[in-house]
Design a protein that fits this description.
There is one protein chain. This protein has 556 residues and is an alpha/beta fold. The chain has three domains: 6-105 and 177-211 and 241-459, Glycosidases (TIM Barrel), CATH 3.20.20; 110-164, Oligo-1,6-glucosidase, domain 2, CATH 3.90.400; 475-551, Golgi alpha-mannosidase II (Immunoglobulin-like, Sandwich). It contains 14 helices and 23 strands. The protein has helices spanning 31-36, 38-44, 79-91, 110-117, 179-195, 244-258, 274-280, 304-317, 336-339, 344-354, 384-388, 444-449, 454-467, 469-473, and strands at 12-15, 48-51, 95-100, 129-130, 153-156, 161-164, 199-202, 231-232, 235-236, 265-268, 291-292, 325-327, 360-364, 396-397, 402-403, 475-481, 485-492, 495-502, 508-511, 517-522, 534-535, 538-541, 546-551. Helix 7 (274-280) links the parallel strand 10 and strand 11. Helix 10 (344-354) runs parallel beside helix 13 (454-467). The protein starts with 11 loop residues before the first strand and ends in a 5-residue tail after the last strand. The structure holds 1-deoxynojirimycin. 1-deoxynojirimycin (NOJ) binds next to loops.
């Protein structure tokens, strides 16, 4: 493995371990299952794997409620399996990034059980306990709201105090003001780095610290959370989110990671504007989180102008040495293929965009074969958020890229047309979430054989990205923007690449004052067979075609 800042040029693939591959036949994905599929991932051509949490957990939020930070969920395997997975991944040239939930633990974590046991337990101060307001302390200590709505405090009748949680009541927030908590979590980070993991995805990082004096949040008219504002649920979260100490924590973690060779990286889950995300990355000093998720594509339809606006915003904010990320889907969001109305051609254009921008692309498992969002009943949802909102008449929204039950984007990976989609070796077993109903037509085995499939488009794109330094490290400049097309240039001292994307269902002719170009990729696999893709200085794009072109060096 090279020792430079490899993470700048990497491509990340997110695995939801419960849903990737079941090796035992119990209907739940596991680490030996992932090991089986590492060859598939190496062949796909992604470079880094981010695993959603694999630690012991009561699984009330499917791993985002950790009950032991330094072990493996027995349902998923053993530490020996983990070591085997890491070794095989590294042997194949793949990196492994773990999900680290610093903000909260499970309420079944022994620390919380102790903390709750009495007011003078030594672990009491590991969590955030406060007296209530009103006579008898029966009202929450202040007006802070949990992210999914409702008060962020839960009353404990045993010790007659309230504890704070930013997400769900079974996920009490750790008290980061306590130096023992800090030490424990830093040591945990080191524990996994010493084992050889290549980095971390940091869960709701912006929520780690809260105001020490527990001041109320001021009123705001905003209701829904969004990356455009720090306000939601009728309050501006100035006292419970984005505290100065959290930015400091980003820098402290960076110092720890910087001690390691080969370099490791962190990507922070931060729901905020690009400007705030950039601050978490250390701003101009660039000494904080290496990367943060940019979710600004989520509100974009298949719309060239909207996408261009967001790309320009990211280009402005994340200037070198900073780097943006591009995310279409994840385990919390509605799948991208459903958001483009299951249109294969549009999906190929978006894949071309994601893999040719200046930034680190994050691909969610199954997006490479066009898995759809599966409809689920909220009341019986595995996802606690789905059950919390069982009464809602609106179940999901393509525009906001959200679905109340996140089960719909977490269904088992569709490997083949066998019963259970080849996810589980036991064809009879009831998988933990139902298999997407389209699996007989949408799966890896079928797409593997079809050179024109989405899977093979991803494979080719990933290969083109790996083979062309300008796509990994070149600067970015728009050459053409209209509602019908985007054309941009990636420039590196060694080469210049031009990407042209047709967002219209009709032909598009774009003049390019560019020297000699060669076509190195098209979403139309036959495009290179004739010279029809270009006449003189004009690119001839077919409906929904995406092209990658290389400027030929003089003399070649
Ligand atoms: C964000 C994670 O992405 C989500 O899945 C989880 O439920 C919450 N954080 C709480 O950890």
């Amino acid at each position: 493995m090279s020792h430079d800042e490899w993470w700048r040029r990497t491509t990340v693939y997110q695995i939801y371990p419960r849903s990737y591959k079941d090796s035992t036949g119990n209907g739940i994905g596991d680490l030996p299952g992932i090991i089986e599929k590492l060859d598939y991932l190496a062949e796909l051509g992604i470079e880094t794997i981010w695993l959603s949490p694999i630690y012991p957990s009561p699984q009330e939020d499917h791993g985002y409620d950790i009950s032991d930070y330094r072990n493996i969920n027995p349902e998923y395997g053993t530490m020996a399996d983990f070591d085997r997975m890491l070794k095989k991944a590294h042997d194949l040239g793949l990196r492994i990034v773990l999900d680290m939930v610093l903000n909260h633990s499970s309420d079944k974590h022994p620390w919380f059980i102790e903390s709750k046991s009495s007011r003078d337990n030594p672990k009491r101060d590991w969590y955030i306990w406060r007296d209530g307001r009103k006579p008898g302390g029966k009202a929450p200590p202040n007006n802070w709201k949990a992210m999914p709505g409702g008060p962020a405090w839960r009353y404990d009748p045993g010790t007659e105090q309230w504890y704070y949680f930013h997400f769900l009541p079974f996920q009490p927030d750790l008290n980061w003001w306590n130096p023992n908590v800090q030490k424990e979590m830093y040591d945990t980070v080191r524990y996994w780095l010493d084992k050889g993991v290549d980095g971390f995805r940091l869960d709701i990082f912006h929520a780690v610290y809260q105001d020490k004096n527990f001041k109320n949040n001021p009123f705001s008219f905003r209701v829904l959370p969004s990356e455009n504002s720090t306000a939601s649920l009728f309050q501006n979260h100035v006292n419970d989110l984005h505290l100065p100490e959290t930015f400091e924590l980003a820098r402290n973690l960076r110092k720890i990671l910087d001690e390691y060779d080969p370099p490791r990286f962190m990507v922070g889950e931060i729901t905020a504007t690009p400007e705030i995300c950039h601050k978490y990355m250390g701003g101009a000093a660039n000494d904080g989180l290496h990367l943060t998720f940019q979710f600004n594509f989520l509100r974009c339809r298949f719309n060239a102008r909207q996408l261009a606006r967001q790309i320009k915003h990211n280009e402005r904010v994340f200037m070198h040495p900073a780097l943006p990320t591009y995310v279409y889907s994840n385990h919390d969001l509605m799948r991208i293929f459903t958001r483009v109305s299951e249109n294969w051609d549009k999906m190929k254009v978006l894949a071309t965009l994601q893999l040719t921008l200046r930034g680190v692309p994050f691909i969610y498992y199954g997006d490479e074969i066009g898995m759809s969002q599966v409809k689920v009943k909220l009341k019986t949802s595995e996802d606690p958020i789905g059950r919390k909102f069982w009464w809602s008449p609106i179940k999901q929204s393509k525009y906001f890229a959200f679905a109340f039950s996140r089960d719909g984007c977490r269904t088992p990976m569709q490997w083949n047309s066998e019963p259970n989609a080849g996810f589980s070796p036991d064809e009879e077993v009831k998988t933990w979430l139902r298999i997407g109903p389209k699996y007989k037509k949408v799966n890896v085995a079928i797409q593997d054989k079809n050179p024109n499939s989405l899977l093979n488009t991803y494979r080719t794109l990933l290969q083109v990205r790996r083979e062309n330094i300008a796509l990994q490290a070149g600067s970015f400049e728009f050459l053409h923007e209209s509602s019908g097309a985007l054309v941009y240039k990636r420039t590196h001292p060694e080469q210049v690449i031009i990407v042209a994307l047709n967002f219209k269902k009709k032909r598009n002719f774009i003049s390019l004052a560019s020297p000699r170009l060669e076509l190195i990729f098209s979403t139309d696999i036959k495009a290179g067979e004739t010279d029809a893709w270009k006449t003189d200085a004009t690119l001839n794009l077919k409906p929904y075609e995406g092209m990658i072109l290389r400027e030929m060096q003089s003399g070649s």
